[in-house]
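ok so I'm stuck.
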Amino acid sequence: MTVLRRAITRAGVKPVGAYQHRFIYRYCYGLVEPLSGDKFFVTAPQVNTLFFEYLLQEFSRHEPSVYKIIFLDKAGYHRAKHLQVPENIRLVYLPSSNPELNPIERFWRDMKDKVAFRNFPDESALETWINTTINNYSKEHIASLTGYEYILQAVSHAKNAMEVS
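replied:
not stuck anymore, here's the structure
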């Protein structure tokens, strides 16, 4: 599996990079907290409602006393009618076709840049690389990538409102 990216070269010169003519798929579900830089990731062989529900269940068990709000796009598996959402999680759907509003999108762009032009001999090597790379992200780096000003302000206002209540 090779992820291709653009590269700066002289006019008329194509970038040189290793390329593999087979495909290995591994999907990564991720949640980030833009204020603190906390992260929660799960890898899976597919993208579908079943695995998304698994992510929600696992995330719910992580600090079960904390109420969690997750911003999502409107992908079909995020909105399935039979999706079971744990009681300590609230899903907030962002407007369609606006990935720039979703904090995780900058993280995914950074991850895709890191995987570009790499080859992996098998699915296990790819999954190991994904997990190692994600674990190497510091909280500060994640917060700097995902801390959109409008989200930081909204979280601050929400926390202040909760303290007043």
